[in-house]
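Title: Request for sanity check on Amidohydrolase family protein prediction

Description:
We are preparing a figure and want to confirm that the structure record we downloaded matches what your pipeline produces today. Could someone re-run it with the sequence below and paste the raw structure tokens into this thread? We only need the token string, no images.
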Amino acid sequence: MTKTTMDLTELLQKHDQGDLLRSIAEAVLQLMMESDVDGLMMGMGTPSVERLRRIAPNYRYSLSVDVPTNQGTDMFSKMRALFMLQRSLRTQADPEACLFTFFQDPAACRDGMITAREVLEAATVEGARANGLLGRTGTLSRGKQADIVLLDARRIDVGPMNDPIGLVATAMDTSHVDSVMVAGDFRKRDGALVGVDVARVLSEAEASRDAVLGRL
């Protein structure tokens, strides 16, 4: 990393830059992490959340998608992938301390692991912060616009619910989204998109794809 006189405290860093992670954590306000598939599929390694948490335990990071052409773009799959991958890396880093059996609960290891709440915040409130929108959205708070996602926790595949945060971060997917409200207006309600002709959108997307491929 070259020396600079720039004020980097408001800079949003998209990639962790490997060995420069500590320098970035000291200089940059927030990191935006890719969770899983894009980097792994292209041989770019894994997101450094676990290492970042050891270097700067209270450092904020948000969750993002980089290459939607080779993976899904929903936050549910990204949260689950990040949660499982980082816990796996934590276990691999200290397998003796993290060994779980029916006779041994590795409490010390678990205390240092990524949590479902941390993952959910990375996908919601920290995403709003990273995009400069925290004053308007990202949390359900007085004075902010009504951006709300209603999830169906009565589905047989996720019920009965015990831990809502853990359920959202590790077990749900887009099929559990019942309704979505943006700034007080429903964009999805009772499982169906509002004001969107899905068939027309798909037809236009397919025509655009064919046109691009036809020029190759």
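Thanks, this matches our download. Residues 75-93 form the longest helix (19 residues).
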